[in-house]
Amino acid sequence: MVQLPVLTPRKIIKILEKFGFIFIRQKGSHCLYGKENFLVVIPYHNKDLKPKTMKHILKQAGLEVEEFIKLL
Predict the structure, then answer these.
(1) 20: domain CATH number?
(2) Is residue 51, in this structure, part of any structural domain at all?
(3) For residues 15 and 72, what is the distance between their CA atoms, to the nearest angstrom?
(4) Model pTM?
């Protein structure tokens, strides 16, 4: 299994936008991005995201870890 790199929310948002996700709204420190039937909630702060949080974001987006790493 491929290990996820440690990334900031800004980097994850850039990658999701490459996949076609668009910004919908923000409430507090959480941004909501959407594409077709997928909605992704990203905690937006200056810290690196934990691997478990990143896996959950990828699951919400319907992406595999390998697909995600190819766009880094």
Answers:
(1) 3.30.920.30
(2) yes
(3) 7
(4) 0.85
User: Average pLDDT of 37-60?
Assistant: 93
In this structure, which amino acid lies at residue 21? Answer: F
Rounded mean pLDDT, 34-45: 94
**Which one, of 30, 43, 40, lies nearest residue 62 by Cα?**
40
18 burial (CB, 10 Å; 0-12 / 13-18 / 19+) is exposed
Write the DSSP assignment of 29-55 as a string of letters: TEEEEEETTEEEEEE-SSSPPPHHHHH
- Supply the DSSP symbol for 69: H
Rounded average pLDDT over 23-33: 96
Domain span at 24: 9-70
